[in-house]
Design brief:
Helices cover about 55% and strands about 5% of the residues. The protein is mainly alpha-helical. The chain has one domain.
Length: about 280
């Protein structure tokens, strides 16, 4: 067994053990549950279930190995930027619902797919396809994408939309024990999660938060997100763009008031050297 497969197998065992142990404790959400009362611990558990659904379907979702010098460079580069993009959210207390587990790193996974997609699951782990990595031009667009996804997850809009995909009893069962009385399981969680299409008002809110976050957490331009969107062709079938976009989005993003500490950095060539050259 090579190192990459060994690391993947070890991670899978850890995730399975974590879900089993967590599943033994019922968070006891009284019906009808209040979405705002779902704690960050429970959101992390939900994310582990979705992550397991991906990692246990290698025929459908292939994770790019982190073994080998080139892959190590890719993962180290992506993880460093995601640590920066998500740092504020990882340390922020969600009033009434606790903090995120500060001992658990929000990890980056690269999916071997030509589709242009990226998403953060509940609890913070970031998934991005090789197709999306190839679509990005520089590190400012990467940081904008990571900031957008982390902001979407932190806002609970994602949680609300995912919960709306199920009747309340099924969602509670899936959250607490991973299966429902109606036969649903973590694969259904993943499928519904990946099918969410966000509303315009939700995305405008997240875009504005993202623009401010880029200014506060980096030296990149707040227009990095709009620049990313501009890079897609008009007829793009990117799942990320189709499910997370609205008319006039570029103009809306560029109309947001600039924070006083917004930077003007775009690239120093590192994205080309650390990502594009090794895809």
């Amino acid at each position: 067994m090579n190192l990459g497969n060994l690391l993947t197998s070890t991670l899978l065992v850890i995730l399975l053990l974590g879900v089993v142990l967590s599943g033994c404790r019922r968070p006891s959400i009284p019906p009808p549950y209040v979405l705002e009362e779902i704690t960050n611990d429970q959101r992390e558990l939900l994310g582990r279930r979705i992550s397991l659904a991906i990692l246990t379907q290698p025929d459908a979702y292939q994770i790019r190995s982190s073994a080998g010098q080139n892959n190590e460079i890719i993962y180290e580069y992506l993880q460093a930027y995601y640590d920066q993009a998500s740092y504020f959210y990882r340390i922020t207390e969600d009033i009434g619902n606790g903090t995120w587990d500060k001992n658990r790193q929000w990890r980056v996974y690269v999916l071997k797919s030509s589709l242009q997609n990226a998403f953060v699951i509940p609890g913070g782990d970031f998934f991005i396809t090789e197709g999306m990595l190839a679509q990005l031009s520089n590190e400012s667009e990467l940081f904008a994408l990571m900031s957008f996804e982390a902001s979407l997850m932190q806002s609970r809009i994602m949680l609300s939309e995912l919960a709306d995909q199920f009747v309340a009893e099924d969602f509670i069962d899936l959250l607490e024990i991973g299966t429902s009385k109606n036969g649903l399981n973590r694969q259904d969680l993943l499928i519904r999660f990946l099918e969410i299409v966000y509303e315009e008002s939700q995305l405008i809110n997240i875009d504005e938060i993202t623009a401010m976050h880029i200014c506060n957490a980096s030296a990149f331009r707040k227009q990095s997100l709009s620049q990313l969107i501009k890079s897609f062709p008009n007829n793009s079938d990117s799942p990320w763009l189709v499910q997370k976009s609205y008319g006039g989005r570029i103009e809306k993003i560029e109309s947001f008031d600039s924070a006083p500490n917004c930077g003007n950095r775009t690239t120093d060539g590192s994205y080309q050297e650390n990502i594009l050259d090794f895809l």
